[in-house]
Design goal:
The complex is a heterodimer of chains A (138) and B (245).
Chain A: H1 6-27, H2 33-55, H3 60-71, H4 76-136
Helix pairs in contact in A: 1-2, 3-4
Chain B: H1 3-17, E1 23-29, H2 36-44, E2 49-54, H3 61-68, E3 71-74, H4 80-94, E4 99-102, H5 114-124, E5 128-132, H6 144-161, E6 173-176, H7 177-182, H8 191-201, E7 206-210, H9 224-244
Helix pairs in contact in B: 1-5, 2-3, 6-8, 6-9, 8-9
The chains are: A mainly alpha (138), B alpha/beta (245).
Chain lengths: 138, 245
């Protein structure tokens, strides 16, 4: 039985876009395979949730709640929130660590470029002084 | 001879005593076109080499530095004062200097006190000498907010580092090159506290001299917003030094 609302179509669209964009990034070398797999899991999860609830193929939410109850969460809904928050925290940490690491790399690179240019300028200066002193000699 | 001439002669004598050691000065500068030429010219009288670190200025700072200083390091992107001083240390160490002087490009620090920094370093066999505005009356010209902030950070450095200094945030300093090689790269913000704390906890000797520092030139950097952001950052930096250094 079909019970599709706009939110289900949005879910399907978002999941397809997520997987497609992630695939494009990994193909162009801007994302590693592990990151692609993480986004793929997210995309497939959203897709499964949207399709199963829209077309009543399979009651994903009930199944998910039953799984969480099996893990020890008293209420399935609380479990969903807890797991979602934990997942988001992990994602946030991973993103933050990546951003900090990139920031440090850019700073180090900035410093190295500056020092390299400095050394080149100083060497040019020394060469020029040396040439001038040689020209003055009889 | 007038007392002023006496002082000047003492300064030059102290500089002569340090002749056997190579002294380089680094001048971190960001948009300091108005004051930089004078600072570099005055500093040149007391050191072997002046290196300006232009932190991606948008005014004429680089051109003026190139004309007046012995060397200019120019950041492609702005890194903040902590990043600029760190680049300056690296440049001075590559040039092989034994002692590195750090002096601001905005004219807040008087280069004629460089011989005093060197003399104090020699007298007390110190690894770092800080020019303090708290050992004279100039601190009274600063705003209450800024004075509270500096006092708080200084108290923290003294407490955690087991030292007894009066002005941890001063950027007018002299370092022995060996110590600079040994210290970790500080964060780009609050480098002064981190560097002082780490040096103290690593057992390096820190001394101070009295140097007047008029507040007009950089008081704008320290407003209430900055003051509110400082405590959490200070806690993080202190934890970083205490736990990981």
């Amino acid at each position: 039985m079909v019970n599709a609302n706009p939110i289900h179509y949005i879910g399907i669209l978002v999941s397809v876009l997520l997987v497609y964009k992630s695939y494009k990034l990994v193909r162009s070398g801007k994302e590693n395979v592990l990151e692609f797999l993480v986004w793929l899991c997210f995309g497939l999860g959203i897709f499964a949730l949207s399709v199963s609830t829209a077309f009543r193929v399979f009651n994903t939410l009930e199944w998910f709640q039953a799984m969480l109850a099996f893990l020890g969460f008293r209420s399935g809904r609380d479990g969903v929130f807890v797991v979602a928050i934990l997942g988001l925290m992990l994602l946030l940490f991973y993103t933050y660590a990546n951003a900090k690491s990139n920031q440090k790399r850019v700073s180090d690179l900035n410093q190295k470029v500056a020092l390299l240019k400095y050394e080149v300028r100083q060497q040019d200066k020394r060469d020029s002084e040396s040439r001038q002193s040689n020209e003055k000699r009889p | 001879m007038s007392p002023e001439q006496d002082v000047l002669q003492d300064h030059h004598l102290s500089a002569e005593q340090e002749e056997e050691q190579s002294v380089g000065a680094i001048v971190p500068a960001y948009n300091e076109a108005d004051t930089l030429r004078q600072v570099v010219s005055d500093t040149k009288q007391y050191v072997d080499q002046v290196i300006v670190v232009d932190d991606a200025s948008t005014d004429e700072t680089f051109e003026i530095a190139a004309e007046s200083a012995d060397g200019v390091v120019r950041h492609p992107q702005n890194m903040g004062v902590g990043g600029a001083v760190q680049t300056g240390y690296l440049a001075a160490l590559r040039e092989g200097h034994d002692i590195v002087i750090q002096i601001d490009g905005d004219g807040q620090h008087d280069p004629s006190f460089i011989p005093d920094l060197l003399e104090k370093m020699d007298e007390e066999d110190a690894d770092m000498v800080i020019g303090s505005r708290w050992l004279n009356e100039s601190y009274k010209e600063y705003s209450l907010v800024r004075r509270c902030g500096i006092n708080f950070f200084t108290y923290e450095a003294n407490l955690l580092g087991g030292i007894d200094i009066t002005d941890v945030t001063s950027g007018f300093r002299a370092y022995r090159a060996d110590m600079l090689r040994d210290l970790e790269q500080p964060e780009t913000s609050h480098w002064a506290l981190e560097q002082t704390l780490e040096a103290a906890r690593s057992g390096y000797r820190i001394a101070e001299i009295s140097t007047p520092m008029p507040p007009e030139t950089d008081d704008s950097q320290f407003d209430v917003g900055t003051f509110l952001r400082y405590p959490p950052r200070m806690i993080l930096i202190s934890l970083k030094v205490l736990l990981f250094r």
